[in-house]
Amino acid sequence: MSEKDTDFWFPAKRYGWGWGLATCWQGLAVQVGYIVLLFAGAKIWLPRGQRAEFWGLLIVSTILLIAIHWLKGEKPLAWRWGK
Length: 83
Known about the structure:
mainly alpha; two-stranded antiparallel ribbon; 57% helix
């Protein structure tokens, strides 16, 4: 792995468009935090029937997750067909 590769928290996917799993602890913390946040929100709001609050959490946290991937990940500029 070159130095440039280690600057990315999330590598571009080999096939398709987007990012793969994190390659460092910071990226892993972001991905695990996103999942934990959604599970906690579902456990708190969905049993009470507060679906709008959960959907708000889902939308805002997903936008934030994509922004972090875009800033800290390898830029997926084109569809990839593998190497």
